[in-house]
Amino acid sequence: MKEDWSAVAEALNSRTVELALKQKELAEKSGVSLAIVREMQQGRIQRRRNPRTLEALSIALDWHPQHLIAVLQGQIPPNADPQTPQDDNPLVPLLNTIIREIRGLRAQVGALSSRLDEESKKREP
Questions:
Q1: Which domain does 61 fall in, by range?
Q2: Could you count the other beta carbons within 10 Å of the beta carbon of residue 81?
Q3: Rounded CA separation 60/55 (Å)
Q4: What span, in angstroms and rounded, lies between the C-alpha atoms of 95 and 108?
Q5: How far apart are CA 125 and CA 75, in angstroms?
Q6: 93: domain CATH number?
Q7: 28-65 CB burial, b ≥16 within 10 A, e <16
Q8: pLDDT of 122
C-alpha cells in the first residue's frame, strides 16, 4: 500500500487555513512537536509516523481521529463524530468539553511516549 504524504500535507495545510491555526497552535493543541508539524505540512520529509501522531493531529483539527490515516492511505476519511443533540441539560456542553480535553491529553501522552521511546533507543548500547 502506497502512502501519500503529500495528500496529508495538503489536508493539514487546507484545514489549518480553514481554522486559522498557526503551526505553533496546532503543535500545542495536538501535543505533537512543532518540528514534526512543520515537516508534515511541508511534505518534504516523507517517513513513517506513529499512528498516534496522525490521530492527535486529526483530533486537534476537529476531524475524526482516523481522518489523516485515511488520507495517507488514499481512502475516504470517516465523518467526524456526530455531535450529541443539544438539549436543555446544561451538562451536555460541559461533558463535550471534557471529552475534547481528554482526547487532547491522550494525544499528548502518546506524543510524549513516542519521544521517550526514541530517546531510550538512542541511549541503548
A1: 5-123
A2: 10
A3: 9
A4: 20
A5: 41
A6: 1.10.260.40
A7: bbbbbeeebbebbbebeeeeebbebbbbbbbbbbebbb
A8: 87
Tracing cell 511541508 back to the chain, one arrives at: 42
- With a cut of 80, say whether residue 80 has pLDDT above it: no
pLDDT tens by residue, 38-66? 999 998 777 778 888 999 999 999 999 99
CA dihedral of 95, 29, 103, 86, whole degrees rounded to 10 = 30
Q: Where are the beta strands (DSSP E) in 22-109?
A: none
Average pLDDT over residues 67-81: 89
Burial label for 92, CB within 10 Å (0-12, 13-18, 19+), is: middle
- The conformation of residue 55, written as its DSSP 8-state character, comes to H
Rg of the chain in Å (alpha carbons): 16
Does position 85 have pLDDT exceeding 60, yes or no?
no
Q: Cα separation of 30 and 71, whole Å?
A: 18
Number of domains in the chain: 1
